[in-house]
Amino acid sequence: MRGFRPEGCARIDAGGGAAARETDSLDPRRDGGYGRQPLRSFSGGLPDDPPGGPKGRPLPRPGNLFAEMRIYLDHNATTPLRPEVLVAMTETLGNAYGNPSSGHAEGAHAKALVEAARADVARCLGADPSWVYFTAGASEANNALLMGLVSGGGGRLVTSTVEHPSVVEPAARLEKAGMPVTRVPVNADGLLDPEAVFEAAGSDAVLVSLVWANNETGVVQPMETIAAGLRARGIPLHVDATQAVGKWPVDLGAVGADYLSCSAHKLNGPKGSGCLVAREGSPFYPLIAGGPQERRMRGGTENVAGIVGFGRACALAADELPERMASYASLRDRLWEGLCSELGPLRRNGCAENVLPNTLNVQFPGMPGEVLLQALDLEGVAVSAGAACHSGSISPSHVLTAMGLSPEEARSSLRLSLGHGVDVEQVDRAVALFHELVLRIRRAESG
Amino acid sequence: MSSPSPAPVGGRHGSVSEQRVRVIVAMSGGVDSSLAAALLVEKNLEVVGVTMHLAGDSSRCCSLEDADDARRVAEELGIRFYVANYTEEFRREVIDVFADEYLAGRTPIPCVACNKRFKFDYLMERAGIFGAMGVATGHYARVRQNERTGAFELRRPRDLQKDQTYFLFQLDQAQLARTYFPLGELTKEEVRERARNLGLKTADKPESQEICFVPGGDYAEVVEKMRPEAASRVGEIVDTRGSVLGRHSGVHRFTVGQRHGLGLNANRRLYVISLDADARRVVVGSESELAAEGAEIFDVNWIEGPAPERPVRARVQVRHRHPGAGATLYPLPGRAVHVEFDEPVRAVSPGQAAVFYDPATGNDDRGERVLGGGWIRG
Predict the structure, then answer these.
(1) Do B78 and A432 touch (CB under 8 A)?
(2) Domain of A118?
(3) pLDDT tens across A58-82, in order?
(4) Level-2 CATH architecture, domain B233-285
(5) Which of A31, A68, A378 to mutate to test the interface with B (most CBs of B within 10 A)?
(6) A31 lies within 8 A of chain B by CB
(7) Which of B29, B50, B94, B159 is the most exposed place for a label (fewest CB within 10 A)?
(8) pLDDT tens sequence across B264-296
(9) Distance between alpha carbon B18 and the CA centroid of its chain, in Å?
(10) Predicted complex ipTM exceeds 0.95
(11) Is A375 close to B44, i.e. CB distance below 8 A?
(12) pTM of the prediction?
């Protein structure tokens, strides 16, 4: 995060106006926080707020997030926008207001932007542009494909025990509706055995849906082998490549999967933008009916700026992939070695070879992940621990328990995921803070 | 929890940043803890709000809406906010114990254990891990350090209507040294007014009086849900001479001092005098038979140090709302005390707490300083 602060935040904050300032006497950071940040306008070209500040309820304030030095190690949850993406999106939002379906020049311009983005996304995924259907993200793409099976008239679905909730829950719904679902287990390393997938698929599965790189452990499945085997058996394969894109070579042309889903915000693009890729001849049922958009496969006026941002993020990812992988891996190894040398032997969850270069899932025995996460956050380090429920408390990860970890082991695990903006200095500092916190925890427990 | 000094942040790696003193506030989502947090923010402390997720989602006090209210107040105050999940510990240490106490014919008071274990033991532990120097809560109570002895005294709050010291008698010196009750000098009305003036969302939120995991106040239902066998433990209702007056559907449905719901046709007012869980008997009698001249108190905590060596005078409170009764305390070996009331006291219920106040302190004879307290033996 450091080195890049979206200017819009300071702007919005300053615009909080009277309502925000009234409570400033309560604000512990009144003389030290974001107030000292230079307030520059968003893109330099936007009009000033109306007198008295913008209308409507002020947005929640960011606290001191942008003033303190944050070390963001949760890039598998989401990533900061790349400045290049922000510029492309801002220009689109400001200028390209046309509806891509319109017949006039404004519409044509917006349409051209969407199609240029489609080409960038397709290049990044090794797909043909005509296979790309823009959605509001990977969860929508997964739902569109899976829930569409209801209309497909029966058959059997095969998936795994370590899927993202946007596959887990549609699969459970299909099961409830009467469709048999087989969930292939993973081994202790989090890996699928391709033979087990083939066996589960048999000859009658209508679809096999598998996550390529796991969001929690980063473990990368042997997707080339699985895809080739299923192709030989004539069974369609869907890969959820949300975590893989931008961190792992993804080439749909080389990997014979029929469908792929991914999301822009995992690769420094915007939230609410993603796609379902379906090869020519691989049908799916539109989840949102209602218009000619996306060749009638996804109704609703296009999120043009989101799509442009997605395209830009994909173009950057395609160009930078080898350097990214090398740089993430070296930082990740430094983090892992640092943690081990400061804290003694630790256990890493998931296979250490076939794993995303940016992801480290670690057990800290006897230390609840919830407490570590909160204590680290107070010191400026953002990490992830399991799945947060609505109230914000944390339940053990189903991915880790599917790998055979006990609920306690799963609860004492943290996911550290690196990405753009993380540097050596931050990694070393995070290691030092881990050391300090683990000492504090031991002291508190013995106290 | 031995060292009262805050853990330095950064340690040998250097200070993380110029830090203000950090303190945790237990935020329930109600007006009291919201204002407690606001008052500490005004003192320029680095306040961290924590909502404890204790009972399951269906309960009142720890419900999702309350956590959301606390989160919103934290946002308004610009402080960090976390939810601390203690649902397993709460089930084990509070709810299970609550059900077992009722089954044993006692009338438990789960809020004492909850306060001691959760708001203090567990939150103090988390405070240590967070590098915070202590824990603040929205309790109405005061802590004062005695200048002469150096001891930390627990005292009743300014607003005696809201006094919560009865629930806090188990706190020890190490905890009191790191405990803050920002509302101790305010009345409830002042709290609401200040919360309103600050625009806090929870300023006019209604009070919760019930036990948080007993939403409708139906204890028997909760006990039977947890311990289904309770419902089948029917037995006799007898008078103090042993004559059978009727039948009952489980001793867990009764409390000493109870008059209503006995299901008896008697020509005189009858009260529950005692409960014999082993014999499954509910003993009833007249109001005069309900009075106790003394009581055995066990597991006594003396807040400021070791037990006194000779008898001491005290005001003894045997229920939350009890005004207290003059008594002499006779310390016994093994953390026990024999209480001799000056005049007989009505409905001294086993399972409830007896809390001792120093009658020489405060503006009235109720006493202000908490000497200690323990549990009434059956």
Answers:
(1) no
(2) 83-316
(3) 566 555 555 568 999 999 999 999 9
(4) Roll (2.30)
(5) A378
(6) no
(7) B159
(8) 777 788 888 888 888 888 898 888 888 889 999
(9) 37
(10) no
(11) no
(12) 0.83
